[in-house]
């Protein structure tokens, strides 16, 4: 099991750099006029440990694909019905598409000048059906978490100055809702969201599945590791590890989407303070994302209501962040 107490203390962003950017902007009417761009750029400066903030030159998107036993089970059972507007085969199809330079994230990444890494080995085998069984064994959970640590180390060692985690996986929004709902003590009907575009029957399926999954892990609300292990998946814990290591390596994170936000929430519960290294890029329609962001006191830069996954919202927000850096440095 992950033991945060055995790790070195988590570094904190540089509060002096943050204050310097804010003070510099507050000194002129023009600077004041930049509104929320000021604390956004100040956050980046604090992560970099310098003011003014330096330009982002080596951002890297890491998109983790994952298969969920929940989605497989519900696609083939009459007890609930389909979970998503997408068939489960769409996970592998979208990962392959992205590897070939196609799909929403590939398009947004090209426009933002960001390179993309697809991690597809977390996609198989599927995690357990969380309505009936544990998602992962302790060994598999630990392996997935350590994979995320290693990926972040590889990217930072390679010169990455901003990490953009993303996800691909049919059933991701339901898994995120189960985890956030359990951690924050929300009812299934309050935490459930539309996913990829659920109709009324799919929404009922999601509520039923959430009810059963959350009931199974109800006694672990104060144990974020086991909530993630029992109700998550390998790709989820890979993203948790990536977020943790990014904070440990003083590397800022640009996040969006319910699944990645839920991973950040677990990372922050395991290692308090991880969220200070993250900027929320865009709000989506998932209630779990809204609740998780509020719990971490993160306010999204944009409200695009995207449900495409693949870090698309973060990739679309990056040019705005880059422009903000230039505006405040001018």
Automatic annotation (TrEMBL):
Pfam families: DBI_PRT. It comes from the Bacteria. One of its GO terms (molecular function) is nicotinate-nucleotide-dimethylbenzimidazole phosphoribosyltransferase activity. Keywords: Glycosyltransferase, Transferase. InterPro entries: Nict_dMeBzImd_PRibTrfase, Nict_dMeBzImd_PRibTrfase_sf. Coiled coil: none annotated. Gene3D superfamilies: 3.40.50.10210. This is Nicotinate-nucleotide--dimethylbenzimidazole phosphoribosyltransferase. The lineage of its organism: Bacteria, Bacillati, Actinomycetota, Actinomycetes, Mycobacteriales.
């Amino acid at each position: 099991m992950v033991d945060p107490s055995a790790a070195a203390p988590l570094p904190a962003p540089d509060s002096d750099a943050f204050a310097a950017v804010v003070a510099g902007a507050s000194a002129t009417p023009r600077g004041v006029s930049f509104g929320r761009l000021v604390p956004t750029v100040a956050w980046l400066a604090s992560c970099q440990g310098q003011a003014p903030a330096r330009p982002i030159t080596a951002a890297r998107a890491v998109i983790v694909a994952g298969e969920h036993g929940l989605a497989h089970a519900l696609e083939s059972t009459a007890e609930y019905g389909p979970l998503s507007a997408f068939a489960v085969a769409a996970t592998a199809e979208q990962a392959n598409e992205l590897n070939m330079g196609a799909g929403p994230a590939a398009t947004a990444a090209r426009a933002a000048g960001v390179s993309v890494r697809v991690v597809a080995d977390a996609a198989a085998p599927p995690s357990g059906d969380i309505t009936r069984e544990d998602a992962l064994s302790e060994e598999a959970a630990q392996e997935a978490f350590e994979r995320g640590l290693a990926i972040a180390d590889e990217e930072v060692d390679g010169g990455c100055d901003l990490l953009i985690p993303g996800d691909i996986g049919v059933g991701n929004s339901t898994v995120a809702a189960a985890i956030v709902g359990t951690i924050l003590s929300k009812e299934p009907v309050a935490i459930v969201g539309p996913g990829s575009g659920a109709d009324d029957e799919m929404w009922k399926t999601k509520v039923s599945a959430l009810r059963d999954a959350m009931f199974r892990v109800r006694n672990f609300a104060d144990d974020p590791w086991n909530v993630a292990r029992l109700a998550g998946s390998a790709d989820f814990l890979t993203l948790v590890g990536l977020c943790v290591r990014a904070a440990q390596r003083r590397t800022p994170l640009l996040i969006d989407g319910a699944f990645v936000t839920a991973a950040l929430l677990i990372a922050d519960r395991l290692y308090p303070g991880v969220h200070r290294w993250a900027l929320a890029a865009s709000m989506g329609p998932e209630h779990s994302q809204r609740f998780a962001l509020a719990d971490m006191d993160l306010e999204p830069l944009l409200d695009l209501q995207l449900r495409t996954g693949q870090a698309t919202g973060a990739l679309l927000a990056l040019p705005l962040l880059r422009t903000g850096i230039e505006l405040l440095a001018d």
